Amino acid sequence: MAKNPKAADSRRGCSPTRRPQPRRAKAAPAASSAPDIEDLAPAVPAAAPAALRAQLLRWYDAHRRDLPWRCASGGEEERAYAVWVSEVMLQQTRVPVVVGYYERWMARWPTVRSLAAATQEEVNEMWAGLGYYRRARFLLEGAKQIIEKGVFPRTASALREVRGIGDYTAGAIASIAFNKVVPVVDGNVVRVISRLYAIADNPKESSTVKRFWELADQMVDPLRPGDFNQAMMELGATLCSKTKPGCSECPISSHCQALALSHENSSVQVMDFPRVVPKAKPRRDFAAVCVVQIAQGLEEEAPDAKDNDNLFLLIKRPEEGLLAGLWEFPLILVDEGKTDFQNRRKAMDKYLSKLLSIDVGQRSDVIFREDVGEHVHIFSHIRLTMHVELMIINLKDGVDRLCKKGADSTKLKLVNESSMESMGLTSGIRKVYNMVRAFKEKRLAVSEKGHVPTRKRTRRLKQ
Ligand code: SF4
């Protein structure tokens, strides 16, 4: 969400008489053509804040969902922490998914102090599967910042100083935990406001975003700002949904200009608001992924592998950029025209040799190598096609050469099969791992213990 106007934190000066002005009607459309939404005058006056607030809060008191972060116990700071964690998780993820993550997170780190003592690795593990991992990193950095300062910020402007806290999260924490009269604007609130005021402008444009914040600022209840903000979000998440708004049950339908317009003109629907802006096409990337399994001679070098002699090699991604600092199988981007078998293997061998000292054929004995298949993973702006292969090797020098202490050991690790099952992996890498498991079960007839096949049953790669 774009910037909140700086005035957002100075809500105290706002009086209920500061109503937004409805857009003026443009010239009437030609009789023969269907009217454009933007040419239609609002059919009801702008919402009367006092009545709207009362109706919405009454509805919220009666219908709000029982969500764990709404029952956070303790003082204001405990509540602020709970709101912060839940709002960050909810930014890109649906409520039913967030509930479990939230409960596990709060059981492990019930206070901002306990979170500040966690490592990035632990936080990433806990976050695995929620996506948008930058959020987890910022939560940890923000917690450390707050503990360093010694006080939990109480105002929206002070909260915005914390790493990763933007206008929306600052407004949510300040209003819900500290009862500050500040607005919040998220996707649900945008939908409700754009319908209430029949705003047909592009909701992504900065001038429109600014207007949403101004309207939200004027609407927020001065006595129960936190509940009012949650009520707006709740209405957008439930009754005022994208495609099936329940207008007949809506507590504020008498204020809704989009609904009134739809009654006056059959060519208008409330779903016309907010305007749908076509998304930019995601970039198409292609990657070669090599799931490297190290098969033999492991007991001395990898004590945690005693029960299972299959180790998988994981590489840590760079600390900046997409999926920063997360673990993955060896992965390299390849050009679209070079995704064929030969080119991928050539590029992967070069990568393994240069960065990991796995000189395929020289320092390692390849006992199996075969393509497993493709997995397409969709990020917000990238469509990544991963061409996955499985390579089972026997390292001639032993695994300690790979995992020697020092700088390199922070960038790669060997994980045994049972740990792979339980560790936090990104959903893309988890899917790749599951693909490989299914492939092995089918193709290699792995024994019940999960051991790799003997050489008799495998074939060597042609060097
Ligand atoms: S009347 Fe319908 S469109 Fe208007 S705010 Fe209520 S649910 Fe949304």
From TrEMBL:
GO biological process: one example: base-excision repair
Free-text comment on the cofactor: Binds 1 [4Fe-4S] cluster.
Any one GO CC term of the record: nucleus
Cofactor(s) it depends on: [4Fe-4S] cluster
UniProt-recorded Gene Ontology molecular function terms: 4 iron, 4 sulfur cluster binding; 8-oxo-7,8-dihydroguanine DNA N-glycosylase activity; adenine/guanine mispair binding; metal ion binding; oxidized purine DNA binding; purine-specific mismatch base pair DNA N-glycosylase activity
First and last residue of the signal peptide: none
Enzyme Commission number(s) of this protein: 3.2.2.31
SUPFAM superfamilies: DNA-glycosylase, Nudix
Record-linked InterPro entries: A/G_AdeGlyc_MutY (IPR005760), DNA_glycosylase (IPR011257), Endouclease-III_FeS-bd_BS (IPR004035), HhH-GPD_domain (IPR003265), HhH_base_excis_C (IPR023170), MIG/MutY (IPR044298), MutY_C (IPR029119), NUDIX_hydrolase-like_dom_sf (IPR015797)
Segments forming domain HhH-GPD: 89-238
EC category: hydrolase
Catalytic reactions on record: Hydrolyzes free adenine bases from 7,8-dihydro-8-oxoguanine:adenine mismatched double-stranded DNA, leaving an apurinic site
Keyword DNA repair: yes
Residue stretches of biased makeup (Basic and acidic residues): 1-12
Compositional bias per record (Low complexity), positions renumbered to this chain: 27-36
Any Pfam family hit: NUDIX_4
Disordered as annotated region, ranges: 1-36
This protein's UniProt keywords: 4Fe-4S, DNA damage, DNA repair, Glycosidase, Hydrolase, Iron, Iron-sulfur, Metal-binding
Function: Adenine glycosylase active on G-A mispairs.
UniProt-listed NCBIfam families: mutY (TIGR01084)
Family, per entry: Belongs to the Nth/MutY family.
Protein name per the record: Adenine DNA glycosylase
Species of provenance: Miscanthus lutarioriparius
